[in-house]
């Protein structure tokens, strides 16, 4: 967050983007209110509709967005410091004696043919909790942008019995249950998935000691819309996590809780 600035985009005759906060924090990005520009007496003035940074919308009108201050940060603020790499969980009841756990991953830059700042991708683990002492996964959902693949637990590689392995495509960050499906889906525009031990990201417990790969910074539960857990106020931010692009698909996406219900509860 300290490498970004919060900006607002104005539509219509007064088309312009400008800074709102040069030093946003995880909590105050949800507290801003800003008036739209209105064309009045040959000048653009803040006289239009009020827009709030904690309101989710379809981005058809004036709206907020975070933009990196320096393009060099596209490499990622956590590069070389895996303790900054956090996985964010969203847990909800999805059926009778059934709970779904979403695991959200944030990437600073989508480096593919539709390059853009900010990238939120996730997987779902559906768990049967009929016996609270012995919950077990019944299916997994690997999301690749706006589409997904549903697989059975037997089709997934498991680490230490309880942790499903995720293959993330280089550049696009789409998630797959195995390397072959990743390489096939990403060809020819993507770069596929790595299977090198040194490039593993252990996400669940602040690292895996002597195991090869990046150790990671653990997993935090985000809570729910309007009811975030602890320091997770930022989930109520309704703007984009990246600068605006000039063509479709090149703008930063909304955050997890700001996405459609079909994704936040799917």
Give a short summary of the structure.
With 266 residues, this protein is mostly beta strands. The protein has helices at 179-186, 261-264; strands spanning 4-10, 16-21, 33-40, 43-52, 63-68, 87-95, 98-110, 116-128, 136-144, 147-151, 158-159, 163-164, 167-168, 175-176, 219-221, 223-224, 227-228. It is globular.
- Total helices: the number is 2
Q: Which overall shape is indicated by the principal axes computed on the Cα atoms?
A: globular
Helical proportion, percent range: under 10%
**SSE order, one letter for each helix or strand:** EEEEEEEEEEEEEEHEEEH
Task: List low-pLDDT spans.
Answer: none
Largest sheet: 6 strands, mixed
Write the layout of secondary structure elements.
Blueprint lengths: L3 E7 L5 E6 L11 E8 L2 E10 L10 E6 L18 E9 L2 E13 L5 E13 L7 E9 L2 E5 L6 E2 L3 E2 L2 E2 L6 E2 L2 H8 L32 E3 L1 E2 L2 E2 L32 H4 L2
Describe this entry's structure for a reader:
The chain has 266 residues and is mainly beta. The protein is built from 2 helices and 17 strands. It has a 6-stranded mixed sheet with strand order 10-9-8-7-6-15, with no helix packed on it. A hairpin with a 6-residue loop joins strand 13 (167-168) and strand 14. The two termini are 27 Å apart.
Features:
266 residues, three-stranded antiparallel beta sheet, single chain, mainly beta
